[in-house]
Specification:
Blueprint lengths: L2 E6 L3 H13 L1 E7 L3 H11 L3 E2 L11 E4 L6 H5 L8 E4 L16 E6 L16 E5 L2 H14 L3 E3 L2 H31 L8 H13 L2 H4 L3 H4 L2 H10 L4 H19 L2
Parallel strand pairs: 1-2, 1-4, 2-3, 4-5, 5-6, 7-8
Antiparallel strand pairs: 6-7
Length: about 260
């Protein structure tokens, strides 16, 4: 049986998840976003109608996917009558119980990946973590998730939040360091592209070795001569200097632990 989906939210995650579901598991029959441009852009991609009004959200969907910022989920959902249909949020940190006030059927489908609208991903390779408030809804989400991903795991809200924290360290924070490196190199007229092979090798080692065993550089042995020299160069960049010093000490202290 083909399912009908409504997407509440039209950002990066919603774009990729709705596309995967539309291709493999059913039909997205409506997109909602407070911003007309984002709602229209995603709706055109899915060949679906859209709305910017919660009062116009369809009552014909089988599953409502919530892909909003955590801070606005409760406020937006309070304006919608879901008629006890299955409501599913896609957040890494938001507890499943936040949905309890809006439907008697609810769950979570969390794809662990970084998404950008214009960058295509192979959704089948993305790990998906699911949770539901009863066995019937869990069965629905399990079947649905397996249609779009080869890796599906049941995980409760507390463990999913821990996973999300780890993802922030390994993706968001790391990408910020790329940004700082790019800014610093630009000031020296050095192209960021020269770091690409190093970045790729570091990522490969993290997949093939324990990351602690892969650690190299002056901080792991706390080579004060090199570190102090680098800190001197970074005096013109106080933010980068402070981070360099903090992370260097963190690396050294971590590697002193047995």
């Amino acid at each position: 049986m083909s399912l009908n989906f409504c997407f509440i939210g039209a950002g990066n995650l919603a774009t990729h998840l709705s596309t995967a579901l539309n291709e493999k598991a059913g039909k997205v029959i409506q997109v909602y976003s407070r911003t007309e441009e984002s709602a229209r852009t995603l709706a055109q991609k899915l060949n679906s109608p859209y709305t910017t009004s919660t009062k116009e959200i369809t009552d014909k969907a089988d599953i409502y996917f919530i892909a909003l910022k955590d801070a606005v989920v409760a406020d937006v959902l309070s304006e919608i009558d879901f008629q006890n249909k299955l409501v599913v949020h896609c957040s890494g940190s938001l507890h499943m119980a936040v949905l309890n006030d809006f439907s008697s059927n609810y769950g979570v489908l969390y794809p662990l990946q970084t998404f950008s609208r214009m960058r295509r991903v192979d959704f089948a390779q993305i790990p998906v973590f699911i949770e539901a408030n009863n066995s019937g809804n869990l069965k629905i989400l399990t079947t649905l998730a397996h249609k779009i991903s080869e890796s599906v795991t049941e995980m409760d809200s507390a463990r999913r939040k821990s996973l999300h924290i780890a993802a922030v360290f390994s993706n968001n924070f790391v990408n910020h360091f790329y940004t700082l490196a790019a800014d610093f190199l630009e000031a020296q007229n050095i192209p960021f592209e020269v770091l690409h092979p190093l970045i790729l090798e570091t990522a490969k080692k993290a997949q093939e070795m324990n990351p602690k065993d892969a650690q190299t550089g002056p901080a792991v042995r706390f080579d004060e001569t090199i570190i102090n020299d680098h800190l001197h160069v970074l005096e013109k960049y106080p933010e980068k200097q402070a981070l360099y010093n903090l992370i260097s000490r963190s690396i050294f202290e971590h590697h002193q632990k047995k």
